[in-house]
Amino acid sequence: MATPDFIRDIRATAGHQLLLLPGISAVVFDDAGRVLLGRRSDTGKWSVIGGIAEPGEEPAVTAEREVHEETAVHCVAERVVLVQALKPVQYANGDRCQYLDITFRCRATGGEARVNDDESLEVAWFDVDALPPLSEFALLRIKQSLTDEPTWFERTQEA
């Protein structure tokens, strides 16, 4: 995955220290109720679509942009379904990041699903009862997107 220019600029002065970054996930459904997934080029595994918000970009706009950039599908973000601070990760180059993920339920409005950049090996629509193997990360986001429950969040420390 390409590192956004604004993160490269921060890394030039911050080095490898832990950065909190705004991660956005998009769970996109078509009119038939199928979910759009991409098989990631970095892991080879299927997942929901996602990326990092650019400075000044609204999170819903990030979700819509990332979906189009990665899959050529146009969508509209309908609601926030989940907010979660993910565990910190360390990349092979030593950079450390923690993502604050905001997940949106999105509705496809056009375009044909296809690989549209180098972040995916495959892109496809799946019936929710016939999903490929997915991580808990992706499964939780799909599950929450299928409910009418309020936005899910986690409290791991006492208030």
Structural write-up:
Helices cover 21% and strands 38% of the residues. The model has no long low-confidence stretch (mean pLDDT 95). Strand 6 (89-90) and strand 7 form a beta hairpin. The strands form two sheets. Strands 1, 4, 5, 6, 7 and 9 form a six-stranded mixed sheet that branches. The chain contains three helices and nine strands, in the order αββββαββββαβ. It has helices spanning 5-14, 59-71, 136-145, and strands at residues 19-29, 35-40, 46-47, 49-52, 74-85, 89-90, 96-110, 120-126, 152-153. The chain is globular, with a radius of gyration of 16 Å. The chain has one domain: Nucleoside Triphosphate Pyrophosphohydrolase. It has 159 residues and is an alpha+beta fold.
Gist?
Keywords: Hydrolase. Helices cover 21% and strands 38% of the residues. By secondary structure, the chain is of the alpha+beta class.
Which topology does CATH recognise?
Answer: Nucleoside Triphosphate Pyrophosphohydrolase
- The figure for the number of domains is 1
Query: pLDDT average, as an integer?
Result: 95
Low-confidence regions: none
Q: What would you report as the Rg, rounded to the nearest angstrom? A: 16 Å
Q: What is the H-and-E element order?
A: HEEEEHEEEEHE
Number of strands: 9
CATH architecture: Alpha-Beta Complex
The rough form would be described as: globular
Largest sheet: 6 strands, mixed
End-to-end Cα distance = 36 Å
Class based on secondary structure composition and strand pairing: alpha+beta
Q: What amount of the residues lies in strands?
A: 35-45%
For CATH, the homologous superfamily is named as Nucleoside Triphosphate Pyrophosphohydrolase
| Helix proportion range | 10-25%
**CATH class category:** Alpha Beta
